[in-house]
Design a protein that fits this description.
Helix 3 crosses helix 5. This protein has helices at residues 7-16, 40-43, 46-61, 64-68, 83-93, 135-147, 191-194; strands at residues 20-26, 32-37, 74-77, 97-102, 111-112, 123-131, 150-159, 173-178, 183-184, 200-201. It is built from 7 helices and 10 strands. The protein is of the alpha/beta class. The two termini are 30 Å apart. The chain is globular, with a radius of gyration of 17 Å. Strand 6, helix 6 and strand 7 (150-159) form a beta-alpha-beta unit. The structure holds zinc ion. Zinc ion binds next to helix 7.
Length: 204
Amino acid sequence: MHLIPTPDEVVALLRETGALRDGHFEYPTGLHSNEYLQVPLALRRYQNQRTLAVGLSRLLRANSEIRAMMPELSIVVPATAGLPVAYGVCEAIRARQVYWAERERDDQPLRFRQYVEPQPGEPVLLVDDILRSGSKLAALKALLDAAGARVVGLAVIIHQPTPNTLSFGSLPFYYLAKLDARYYVDGAHCELCRRGEPVEKVWV
Ligand SMILES: [Zn+2]
């Protein structure tokens, strides 16, 4: 394994831990795909968490602007699945703190825990295990922007874009590997459905 794992090394690690699965999947949004990824399955092993988080932190160090603000940096995640990555990156770059947002229920807005308040001007790095639709990360960024924090970058282990992935404009964006799954807007347009392959519903 390289100091910054190559995309092939990352994909191999995801496959051997069962985090990356081939098949025929249906997302709650109705999208169908030939590939499904659940990064926390790979992060169950501490050594994997370390390898991936340290690799990601090395990419971040290459950005001199982010490197200069590391002691002041807050690492903020949009859901608890990103926490192993966030703490691993925090340890590797000696950032100031980690905190996260959450939803009480899926239909409720993202929010921080009581008394957790981003400060005006606070430099913030958004971190998660994966960027797929980007909807949670976009909601998190809006929450931080509204509090006056300064979002300086976005870092995830895996970038798995869908046809509907949101854009984060010119925000510096870091990831260890990009996965190009095949997506179909719904069952009626799905090649795998047409071939009669059994479909598995995934939760997220
Ligand atoms: Zn299908």
